[in-house]
Amino acid sequence: MTPNDAPAKAGRREWIGLAVLALPTFVVAIDLFVLLLALPNLATSLQAGSNEQLWATDIYGFLLAGFLVTMGTLGDRIGRRRLLLIGGVAFAIGSLLCAYAPTIELLIAARALLGIAGATLMPSTLALIGTLFQNPKQQAAAFGIWGGTFTLGAVFGPVLGGVMLEHFWWGSVFLLGVPFMVALVVLGPAFLPEFRNPQPGKLDLTSVVLSLVALLPLIYGIKELARAGFEPLPTVSLVVGIVVGYLFVRRQRHLADPMLDLNLFTNRTIGTTLINQLTFSLVGGGFMMMMLLYFQLVGGMTTVQAGAAMVPGMLTAAVGMQIAPRLANKIRPGLLISVGVALAAITYVVVTQVGTDSNMTIIVGFALISFFGAPTVALGTGLVVGSAPVEKMGAAGSLAQLANEFGSTLGLAILGTVGAAVYRSTVTLPGDLPADSAAQAGDSIAGATAVAGDLPAGQGEGLVTAAKDAFVDGFQTVAVIGAVLYACAALMVAIRLRHVPAFGAAAAAPAPEKESESKESEPEVV
């Protein structure tokens, strides 16, 4: 590589642009948690039943994940900055509608708007980072900052939301993101470049419909089966999603201008990294659910204490995301990712030895797993987006986000089901329990705890002890599965990403600073 063809280094304007892109990233992370904080108050205020509360909680995630592929491709076609700003305006409007919703039905509709708007933000953000930072070292650092921002949003979101709920009404938590989105809309045109595919081809509306009809029922079916067990509607929804997904893939193979270029998956770097991210999110989603249940139902923590117990893990993840890009300047990213995942697998092996009084062991274990997994997020996202053709970075960014969203959903379903199955098969119930009480106690540790409250002291304590032991058996099984899956992922990454050089080696040739300060025109491809 010569100085003439070396990627140009980003200047001050590009780093300010990254700060602007951090705004929607922080807001999306906050919004994942604020409704859970406000749920008890809004349920009372809006007289929402349990089913309505579930819809208000889940509709955001359903539509966000369902629209990711569509929005990623749309951004490549109409302009990533344009789509980001449209999404920012829609998100601000949706937040205001949520904050002042007079009925639960309007709140659910506003949350749906937030989900669709959220789907525009992340693919556009990731693609614009890839556009702003062409130098591999700087690009890796930028994606590390992006990942750290998301994690910090997850840390401080509950704190900020709690402060708002302490002093204002339940809807105030939805106003947290409005100033950030206003700043995005104001600053975005000045500091973010516009880019669109110069030859996008015609958008196939049939493919758009097929992708939505595949993803939405698929995600709904998996979540509902994980939450309520076998039910006809979620099962049919899952089957519909799989069948329509097959039709979507088949159609993409025969289109001259496919909505989603399946050749992205055949790229060795992109395909391997997506599989690793899917595995990481699958195990992480299932483990976090089991961990929170452990803290509250076995470890005796309150909801607030259980949330606080996760903070060390989130902070170590944020630190790891800043360290990983620096190390990747001299060490191959495939080696860093594989070693990190392998160390996380070893940590899961240690976690398999927990008992009923292991709160601190799990807190430390989660912090280590989060730190060791940081390269998967910080470097993996950059590898997916950076390895895609520049005109398809939006689609690649949507795939990276979909791997995380879908992996977490699968983890809740698969590992949650495994943990529940182990509990049901190992719990030992008193022989003199009434049939309905025995069924409730044998189904889950939460049910056993409820039943124990109605029993004589000694019998109730015995039931709770048996339930805790059975839950720990399920927890240990989930940890074993996590260790095995992580070990396989580490080996896969170590072998299949050997060809990716250290970012410092890829950017070894000198490159001039971008003179973006003096340029009034933007690098827009039209």
Structure write-up:
This protein is mainly α. It contains 18 helices and no strands. α1 (12-45) runs antiparallel to α6, α11 (303-327) crosses α13 (359-387) and α12 packs antiparallel against α17. The chain is globular. The two termini are 28 Å apart.
Shape: globular
* Helix count from the secondary structure assignment: 18
H/E element order: HHHHHHHHHHHHHHHHHH
Q: How many strand units?
A: 0
Distance between the ends = 28 Å
Q: Key features?
A:
526 residues, disordered C terminus, 78% helix, globular, 18 helices, mainly alpha
In a nutshell, what does this entry contain?
The protein has 526 residues and is mainly alpha-helical. The protein is built from 18 helices and no strands.
Secondary-structure map with pairings?
Layout: H1 12-45, H2 50-78, H3 80-99, H4 104-132, H5 136-167, H6 178-191, H7 205-228, H8 232-254, H9 263-266, H10 268-298, H11 303-327, H12 333-351, H13 359-387, H14 393-426, H15 435-443, H16 445-452, H17 457-496, H18 503-506
